[in-house]
Specification:
Layout lengths: L1 H17 L10 E4 L2 E10 L2 E10 L5 H20 L4 E5 L10 E2 L2 E8 L2
Antiparallel strand pairs: 1-2, 2-3, 3-6, 4-6, 5-6
Length: 114
Amino acid sequence: MLTRIAILGLCLLAVGACGKGPIKLGKERIAFDGQNYRIRASSDRADRSMFAVAVRPVSASLQGAREAAVYGATGHCIKYYGTSDIAWTVGPDTDESALPISDDTLTYQGQCQE
């Protein structure tokens, strides 16, 4: 009987843990390059395919901020289009000297591809 209760408890714990994903775009933070970043994806409701992803604080690690921006963009495209294909306007291939960084925030822009 005790074994059944323990197994049931573990199953409920596992199912409860599955309900929360690794990231919610917005206020939740996630670590990249050992640093935590705030990731915010935004798009026009009329056309969710065109988006911008803002990541801060860049001063923690530029490499980590770049990775976090890609992660946020990928999450946005998967959420709205079910694919991670992105045509970047400003993104991971943009030269470091050309990155739009303002107020300790890095902004990537792109379009989700269907």
